[in-house]
Amino acid sequence: MGRPKRVAIGRVITTYGYSGEMRIEPWTDYPERFQVLREVWVRPVGKPTIRARVRGVRFQSSSILLSLEGVNTKEEAAPLRGAVLEVEIADVYPLPEGSFYIFELQGLHVYTARGEYLGRVGEIIKTGGNDVLAVRSRSGREILLPALKSVVKKIDLVDGRMIVSPPAGLGE
Fold it and tell me: What is the pLDDT of residues 61-71, one digit of tens each?
């Protein structure tokens, strides 16, 4: 799995008002990042991705109102319903020490503390309690590991490795 060029930060839910504003569902733990957003990649459903300059951002309840240059009416905004908003990897919001983006973890090679190779991180499953890492072995077997500090001992993005101490009975 290669490193993506862009990361999704939200989705257009619907239009808002008559001046081309769109209500955005943020897909980030840091919605304040929208305040400094200057441009965004817009990936409409079934259409090519386009690059757009941000004209304005306002906050309303748990959603964000976004306006883009060139989208000045409700009719111009309507085809963007459902579009995913992305930013360049270089523009991702910095995370606190010891925190990682999902795209950084996907594809890492996973080893036990004893050096046994388990596979590569594929999907990260959000469960509400703690995230779960779906690790796919070379044979195609999937191992589900809780993303807890007691399990994930080390993450080395430079070497593309993760060291884990799987819970007792994992392979049984």
Answer: 878 999 999 99
